[in-house]
Amino acid sequence: MFVIMVYDVNQKRVTKVLNIARKYLNWVQNSVLEGEISDAKYEKLKVEITKTIKTEEDSVIFYILRTTRYTDREIMGLKKGGHQVTI
């Protein structure tokens, strides 16, 4: 499956959340990661994130796409992130 992860967490936890997510997904922009991931790795990612965030303060959203066949990506302005996965 293809997952897009966006997060808004307390500044104290930003680095931890980013480091966890980068083990599984590709960083593309501030607070946004994406990539192909297996169901098992997705579950591991969620467990690690859950242990790190404070649900009363932080927000993490996962967009799950079973296929990228009908998606497009258009970047305007500065292209950020490391390895880019083209959709």
Overview of the structural elements:
By secondary structure, the chain is of the alpha+beta class. The protein has one domain (2-65): Alpha-Beta Plaits, CATH 3.30.70. The chain contains 2 helices and 4 strands, in the order βαββαβ. It has helices at residues 14-22, 39-52; strands at 2-8, 26-29, 32-36, 59-65. Strands 2-3-1-4 form a 4-stranded antiparallel β-sheet, with helices on one face. Strand 2 (26-29) and strand 3 form a beta hairpin. The mean pLDDT is 90.
- If you compute it from the alpha carbons, what radius of gyration comes out, rounded to the nearest whole angstrom? 13 Å
CATH architecture: 2-Layer Sandwich
Strand order of the largest sheet: 2-3-1-4
Distance between the termini: 13 Å
Q: What share of the residues does DSSP label as strand, in percent?
A: 25-35%
CATH class: Alpha Beta
The sequence of SSEs as H and E is EHEEHE
Low-pLDDT residue spans: none
CATH topology name: Alpha-Beta Plaits
Mean pLDDT: 90
CA-based shape: globular
Helix content estimate: 25-40%
Count of structural domains: 1
> Largest sheet, if any?
4 strands, antiparallel
How many DSSP-defined strands? 4
Oligomer: single chain
The chain-level structural class is alpha+beta
Number of helices, counting only DSSP H or I runs of 4 residues or more: 2
